[in-house]
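Section 4.2 – Deliverable D4.2 (structural model, holo form)

The reporting period included a commitment to supply a predicted holo structure for the target in complex with flavin-adenine dinucleotide. Inputs used:
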Amino acid sequence: MTEANLTPEQLEFREYAQRWLEENAPPPPPERLPITPIEVMTVGQRDYLQDWQYKCFAAGLVGADYPKAYGGHGHTGFQRIANQELNRAQVPFLINIVGLSMAAPTILHHGTEEQKRKFIPGCLSGEEIWCQGFSEPGAGSDLANQRTSAVREAEDWIVNGHKVWTSLGHFAKWMILVTRTSKDDKYNGLTYFLCPIAGHAGVTVRPLVKITGETGFNEVFFEDVRVPDANRLDDVGKGWAVAMTTLLAERGASEGAGSGGGSGSSAIADLIELARNSWRDGVLAVDDPVTRDAIIQRAIVGEGLRQNGRRARVAALCDHPMRLPLQQKLTASEFQQDNARLGVEIAGASASLYKLDPRAPDAGHWPLAYLNSYGNTIAAGTNEIQRNILGERVLGLPKSK
Amino acid sequence: MNTPITAPRDFGFGEDEAMLRDMARKMLSERFSMSRLRELVAASPEPVYDHGHRPSWDEPLWKEIVELGWTGLAVGEAEGGSGVSLAGIAGMVEEAGRHALPSPLVPTLSASLVLRAADSEVARQLLARVAGGATASLAITNERGSWEPGDAPLNATDDGEGLVLQGTARFVQDAFKADLLIASARAGEDLVLCAVERDAAGLSFEADHIHDLTRDQASVVFDGVKIVPGAIISREGASVLRSAWPALLTLVSADLCGASEWLLQATVEYAKERVQFDRPIGFFQAVKHPLVDAMVEIDRARSLLFHAAAEIDAGSAGAEVAARMAKSAASDAAAFISDRAIQLHGGIGFTWEYGLHIYFKRNLHNQALLGDGVHQRKKLADLLIGPVGSSGILNG
Ligand SMILES: Cc1cc2nc3c(=O)[nH]c(=O)nc-3n(C[C@H](O)[C@H](O)[C@H](O)COP(=O)(O)OP(=O)(O)OC[C@H]3O[C@@H](n4cnc5c(N)ncnc54)[C@H](O)[C@@H]3O)c2cc1C
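Output (structure tokens):
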């Protein structure tokens, strides 16, 4: 659908993006790709995806709205269009998810000129993979309960501690790292760093295995790791505020530096196709009234999410400016989860088959997508925490902490 | 979904539409407060429930509304109306829903949208009357309560001078407030739409004894009602109704969205004030989280509502899908917040006096009107998946 809201330049860019994606869709991957960037396991997958992100970046579909000085393309209002087209085109996803939707926006907001020039270009091109070192064994939902310490020593900081659930840590050159620099104050005692990971002395990355049986995230140990003060983002003690910038970007309240691709947007068509090929009690699932109702419920939620995105930009139809943006993480992750669960239901007994079973429908996508969907309802602040935030920040209900 | 047509900027909800909405909001909050609503329609349950009286409504306020031109919003400028877009109308109807306004506003707007779709000389004359302040309602639902535009409640026979209507139209909204009915009747292969004056010979109104305190509803009996050729709006009634249907769904969805947002805000306010276990109850997540879920559902419904209005305004082929999605989402969102609103207010919410039930019942009524969520999704499945049995593979 075209929109009258777009400037002629933006309309032209949309056409360009569509054409470019049509003409430059990458060849099939050398091995099966996971569903989302946080499950990339092998070097083969990584290289293929890094190559794809670089092409998108060079074509102007990534970093579209970022200043040229930091490796971007210097436009306004182009990124949202690029993200939509990447989603629509059913091309592979952009691997550097932490770089694009967390590190780059945070550095752009809080970084020094030197930091912006040094770190943002690698986020956009995908040449430097980033990971996020926020969660710890004792700091999950209660993120400020950080134990990993950073102690000043001349021009460096010495970091000791233990991070968990670190997606992409196994491929990361850099980590956005929250540390404790003072025990006197829970929130004001935190400091934020851009920490080298791959090959850096004292850093150990160990894979963790998920419920799918696959790896994808890690735990990261820090033993007397030296981080230059030049890699400190914003002031000492400001780490909580900086982390909030990251979380807002991560939860999809802004366009970020680029996102999209993957198979999310085709879910409804895929569910219908699955139902055309699955049987329920002697009839095709696609003719079963209950299944039809369930699929249409999903279609309505999907269209609702799309239209929320449209309405969020019509101030006259938004009573509270953050009411729709803050719903993004909650609604998108539950949409994916409910779609996947329905796919499992429709596939029936065949949903029992793992991806390597030759009889598995859609190569075993649905049960794996369902298992994986909990990653997104838990990560980036669990959906219970999202409901707290919405209840408190938007509805104004009393705070739970 | 895939519309080749350019979708209007901002759903077509620009400055004029916002001004209209804000005016309606201001006027209704000044003139039609919750206490006024309560005193008007729910001073006591006896008149309506025990004695079957029709619920009261504020006729002087309605006169002002007519003077402000709200009833002529859907009438084109050529017929003396203001020809406002459906997006603008939806914004205004949301305000009527938010105030649970008892009035023939939605039925009259619905009738005008059908007349516009008919696009005949007779229809244009009737539209001019509506722009001049006449109220109207649709008499298009049969004994079975069918929401199929092709299922007429009445039969028409030709007596040489014109048509004679026989039968009973059910679930006619605000029938007792309507100057004019738009009735649909089967005449052989055709479905005719006729204009019938409220005092026409052979016409009688049997008030339904209903729960909703913010409207009246009737079974309207047509016993040999004569229709002169000058009162025949269209002989292609089914296709006229079908093309107006998305707009009718949108109006009811707008009312549901407005009323649901009111219930949400009222419950949020209560949850901030009511203290139990030394804390405002909104602190507890069993209270907080469902309110967030209700907000998410209402927001989905509102986004789909304005999407539907924009699709209809653009004449898009996706209008029916968009409108049925909006009605499904709005009906379900309304059911959820109505339920939580009563529950989370505790005992006070269960009392007649407190008045939440006024909104609960208005929503319950509108949820069913023109088909609930399940009904809309059944229609959507046919449109988006294809009819049952159309997959080309033999079942069995
Ligand atoms: C796939 C995946 C990838 C991840 N990637 C990263 C990463 O790259 N970097 C990183 O730093 N972290 C990452 N995380 C970690 C993620 O942010 C945390 O798992 C999340 O914040 C929850 O913390 P927790 O696991 O300690 O659960 P807990 O905080 O212990 O929560 C357990 C349960 O209690 C509920 N709960 C807790 N507090 C409240 C409350 N106040 N109100 C209501 N319910 C509550 C939670 O919702 C949850 O259901 C990832 C997680 C997953 C699953």
